[in-house]
Amino acid sequence: MNIAVCVKPVPDPKFYDKITINPETKLLERNKIPMAINPSDKNAIEAAMRLKELLGAKVILISMAPPEAKEVLKEGLAMGIDEAYLLSDRAFAGADTYATAKTLAAGLNKIGLFDLILTGSESVDGGTSHVPSQLGEMMGMPHLNHVMAVETEGDILKIKTKIENGYMLYEGLPPMVLGVSKEINTPRYVSLMGVVKAQGKPFTVWGLNDLQLNADDVGLAGSLTQPGSLRTPPIDRKVEMLDGDIEEKAEKILKILYAAGVLN
Amino acid sequence: MLKFSEQQEQLRKVVRDFVEKEIATIASKIDQEDTCPVELLRMTAQLGYNGVFVPECYQGVGLGYTERAIILEEIARHSAGFALALMTHHLGVYAILTWGNEEQKQKYLPKLCSGSIAGLAVTEPGGGSDFAGMKSTGELVDGYWVLNGRKCFITNSHCADINIVVVRTGEDEKGRPRMSVFVIDENTPGCKPGRKEKKTGLKGSDMGDVILDNVKVPASNLIGKPGDGAKIGLGTISEVGRSGMAAIGLGILRACLEDSVKFAKERIIYGRPLAKLTNIQFIIAQNRTDYEAGRLLTYNAVGIKDAGLPCVPEISIAKYFTTEAAINTAKRTIDLMGGYGVICDYPVDRYLRDAVASIPSGGTSYVMQIIIAGSALS
């Protein structure tokens, strides 16, 4: 079995209080805080590793990201992934989900054929959940998102996806693209030996020319959507002293919370 | 400039990830309950921490003492007590790795890398650094060594599976005590934990007596040669014990620095963050300076150890500086936090207790100064 895991480096959730948005480009200023593997992409890596351990598989990791993402992606190698591919080129900058999926699809097609392509169901920075479906369409594969369990029965994949108030069960044959949600597993901790072994694993970097794409197809130029007006909400502290007895104060607090939209 | 390799940086990142999820969340509970979370030591074994400097042929990771210091700093950032338990396990591992014969290495190191816990029992009621005053004995009877005595202030006393003990096995031709080292297998009759001490800090690592009551071990359990006890005991403590304590002190220093910065930025007083006050900035500056100095001293010292060069003075300096600085930094951080500094909802009082308890571990600051001065004056 050949499995690919698509990974997105995102601003480390531990530093969310330090995230800023460039007022001109409307993009996150990613270089100002450390990057980490998108949390649900880690679940995708873990799902791939479990299938590898169960069935035997070659697992590769692929990402479209700036060159600095190399260290972040090595964590995937340390978790047990066999090889990593970083698609990195200035032309890829500013890509929306469509252009991202297109670039990833070009990279995956260049690498070879896959039985399973796994992604996280959504990124914690963009949060659109577009890429798994877009990738499936571009790769010509069936695709499911918000996958919370994958089991195998012979060649058949039995898949459970999350829906509001329940789940759906699917059965299908590979190849397919699955966007996994955090419920699917708990990603393993990286062992020190994993870190050591990761240093010697193949790590390939491809640019625009390697993927035989046009500059107009990728990055901001190839994006079908553009960020609209983004702003950082003011987070000011305010102190207001309330008068009255305890019931009056409680009533005032409720009014304030309703007015602020905390309660509705 | 201190610069870690890419691999070391990644190692720190993955260790931090583990520590923040599995240790930071229970650090306060570990301190309050004052019991060693043995299950955590089994987990760290699976991740390679317990055998970080053991070669791969003995199922270790094959890294060095810099990586070990990184692990201990990261753990001590949140739980210096648990870091001490792992640090002490490393002492037993080091003694076997460095002075054990091939058969002993093959027998014990894979176990100690994969979850069995080691302890090193040297100190006795008469003192720790006074090897010659040791009273525990080992007698060769019918091809077996019979060990008797009481060891005290032994970390991992109540959770170690495999104990390394130093005992008196006779006298040399000049009448000086001949010390020897033995490894005691798990569940060996007569070897048992005794009184458990209640410490000021570094709670979460067991510390107490190890009782040797006619403990019978085969001659093959002797590590090194008869009479190698002082060399093995002191060699282990002076290089691996004290460098471990330096890394633990460094973790406490970082905890104080990070918590003082966070508090100073968040606490609003007179309508603005505490951090805007100059006197608070002085505290932050002192905390940062102590951490940076400790970091340079500690990683320089373990770097020398990794290079295979003599490192005892440098390690003593690092241990002396970081543990003393940790006390001062924790005290300053408490001062900075005012009333919040002394309530148990904040961990800074634990940092101070841990820092105080780290002074005697591996030799007091006075012993460190004697070593440092001896090196400078030689």
Automatic annotation (TrEMBL), chain A:
Coiled-coil annotated spans: none
Key words, A-Z: Oxidoreductase
Pfam families: ETF (PF01012)
Oxidoreductase among keywords: yes
Electron transfer flavoprotein alpha/beta-subunit N-terminal domain span: 25-215
CDD domains the UniProt entry points to: ETF_beta
GO MF: electron transfer activity; oxidoreductase activity
Name of the protein in question: Electron transfer flavoprotein small subunit
Protein source organism: Pelotomaculum propionicicum
Gene it is expressed from: carD_4
Automatic annotation (TrEMBL), chain B:
Domain of life the protein comes from: Bacteria
Record domain Acyl-CoA dehydrogenase/oxidase N-terminal: where: 5-115
Pfam families in alphabetical order: Acyl-CoA_dh_1, Acyl-CoA_dh_M, Acyl-CoA_dh_N
GO molecular function annotations of the record: acyl-CoA dehydrogenase activity; flavin adenine dinucleotide binding
Broad class of enzyme this protein falls into: oxidoreductase
Cofactor: FAD
Acyl-CoA oxidase/dehydrogenase middle domain location: 120-215
Keyword Oxidoreductase: yes
Matches recorded under InterPro entries: Acyl-CoA_DH_CS (IPR006089), Acyl-CoA_Oxase/DH_mid-dom (IPR006091), Acyl-CoA_Oxase/DH_mid-dom_sf (IPR046373), AcylCo_DH-like_C (IPR036250), AcylCo_DH/oxidase_C (IPR009075), AcylCoA_DH/ox_N (IPR013786), AcylCoA_DH/ox_N_sf (IPR037069), AcylCoA_DH/oxidase_NM_dom_sf (IPR009100)
Domain Acyl-CoA dehydrogenase/oxidase C-terminal: 239-375
EC number from the UniProt entry: 1.3.99.-
Keywords: FAD, Flavoprotein, Oxidoreductase
PANTHER family xref list: ACYL-COA DEHYDROGENASE, ISOVALERYL-COA DEHYDROGENASE, MITOCHONDRIAL-RELATED
Family: Belongs to the acyl-CoA dehydrogenase family.
Protein name per the record: Acyl-CoA dehydrogenase
The species this protein was found in: Pelotomaculum propionicicum
Gene name linked to the record: mmgC_2
